[in-house]
Sequence to fold (177 residues):
Amino acid sequence: MATTKWSIDPTHSEIGFKVKHMMFTNVSGKFGTYDASAITEGESFDNADFSFSADIASIDTANADRDGHLRSGDFFDAENHPKLTFKSSAFKKINDGEFELTGDLDIKGVSKTVKFPVEFSGIMTDPWGNTKVGLSIEGKINRKDWGLNWNSALETGGVLVGEEVRLNIELQFVKQA
Fold:
């Protein structure tokens, strides 16, 4: 069976995250510039091969000062590590519409294996004849696992920035001719 290449549709995708601020509210952000692709056997996503990269300079939390701090050496160090990347090693079907995605996430020169549950929305044809597939990924990582250690203690106890980063990723891929 022939392999099929799928490319990200950035106008219908979003790479989002949330982190606790001052231990009780969430700050949301997203990456504005990214690329992703998938390789499948035919149109079956069983054992699909995914790759993803995001430009650190495109981080957006709706606050220019915070975004600048996130790009600095205290966090992502965008000057020396301009991209974060992900390369899958497995995409296993759990049951109808549910998969588990495993792969290596590389942030700031540190690579760690991660697993995320994926909701597979199915394959559809849009009004212009393009074959598309939708995926939703929600997961958690600990930012300190990748050396994103900066924090500040609060006078009331606790810390300014939570360690857990919750991912909320919506991906739409387009089948390539």
